[in-house]
């Protein structure tokens, strides 16, 4: 799958495509249905299937720490979109200059002149351009004038509700991992490179692999039984997602204690799937209390995998 970073990197060879635009946060089953339609358009028109998304996500740019919790980082989105068969992703840098672009300018200069979009799929509530003045109706009108077929996505339903990133965030925040999985079509996971932490886990007798969350707001918090992958190794463990309140931490981390594992994996890429929420994160008065609780968490997590 080809990744184009920024409008300035769209070249002449990228002219001519079928396109969908959105955040694709989580790349859930609703998104998968959109991609299915995109691939059908690509086959019909014999043009590359193309997804346009934004970094940061628009609400992150405008609302900062008050933005909705992000489900997936860009790297994870790209991996999931590639698995769905997308040929090309255009990642737009969402900055003040882009936010100030008039809706009509975006359609005529970017979608038509640069990309030569033949078929465009967006949500019927899609808004874009300066002060969000552009909408589906504008796209339909301009599309008819510019020979660009414009259609809206149909809502995909699971659990008697419309599948959406918002609903998945609510399920994750409530610890309802199975409900989230049903809507995502895959287990919820966090991935990244293993970094050096405070080494507090090692001092307590529970060595951890640490991953920076690299998002303004994380949708999950607490202690979880997890399945992890490093390279081709599938591993099991218990993880804490939070800011270590016992140590008065301020930076949220994913900390994974892998069972019966002592290899040095600093700098390696780790994929961590959350299997079951065990408890909320809490502050302990003493390290003895914390150590005892971690031991209980390890036991509970091992029971999830039948390892006791």
Automatic annotation (TrEMBL):
UniProt cross-references to Gene3D superfamilies, sorted A to Z: HUPs (3.40.50.620), Riboflavin kinase-like (2.40.30.30)
Enzyme class: transferase
Keyword match Transmembrane: no
UniProt-listed SMART domains: Flavokinase
GO biological process: FAD biosynthetic process; FMN biosynthetic process; riboflavin biosynthetic process
Top-level lineage group: Bacteria
Reaction catalysis annotation: riboflavin + ATP = FMN + ADP + H(+); FMN + ATP + H(+) = FAD + diphosphate
Role: Catalyzes the phosphorylation of riboflavin to FMN followed by the adenylation of FMN to FAD.
Family per record: Belongs to the ribF family.
Protein name as annotated: Riboflavin biosynthesis protein
């Amino acid at each position: 799958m080809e990744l184009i970073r920024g409008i300035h990197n769209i070249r002449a060879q990228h002219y001519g495509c079928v396109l969908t635009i959105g955040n694709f946060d989580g790349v859930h089953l609703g998104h998968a249905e959109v991609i299915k339609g995109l691939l059908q358009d690509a086959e019909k028109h014999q043009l590359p299937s193309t997804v346009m998304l934004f970094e940061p996500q628009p609400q992150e740019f405008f609302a900062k720490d008050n933005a909705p919790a992000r489900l997936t980082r860009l790297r994870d989105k790209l991996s999931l979109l590639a698995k769905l068969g997308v040929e090309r992703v255009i990642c737009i840098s969402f900055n003040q200059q882009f936010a100030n672009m008039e809706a009509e300018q975006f359609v005529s200069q970017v979608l038509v002149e640069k990309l030569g979009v033949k078929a465009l799929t967006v949500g019927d509530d899609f808004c874009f351009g300066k002060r969000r003045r552009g909408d589906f109706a504008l796209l339909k009108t301009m599309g008819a004038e510019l020979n660009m077929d414009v259609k809206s996505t149909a809502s995909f339903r699971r659990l008697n509700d419309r599948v959406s990133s918002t609903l998945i965030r609510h399920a994750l925040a409530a610890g309802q991992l199975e409900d989230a999985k049903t809507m995502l079509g895959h287990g919820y996971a966090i991935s990244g490179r293993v970094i050096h932490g405070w080494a507090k886990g090692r001092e307590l007798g529970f060595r951890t692999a640490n991953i920076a969350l690299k998002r303004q707001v994380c949708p999950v918090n607490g202690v979880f039984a997890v399945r992890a992958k490093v390279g081709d190794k599938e591993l099991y463990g218990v993880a804490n997602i939070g800011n270590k309140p016992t140590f008065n931490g301020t930076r949220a981390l994913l900390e994974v204690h892998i069972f019966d594992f002592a290899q040095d994996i600093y700098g390696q890429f780790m994929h961590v799937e959350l299997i079951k929420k065990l408890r909320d994160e809490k502050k302990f008065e003493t390290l003895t209390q914390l150590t005892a609780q971690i031991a209980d968490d390890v036991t509970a997590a091992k029971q999830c995998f039948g390892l006791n």
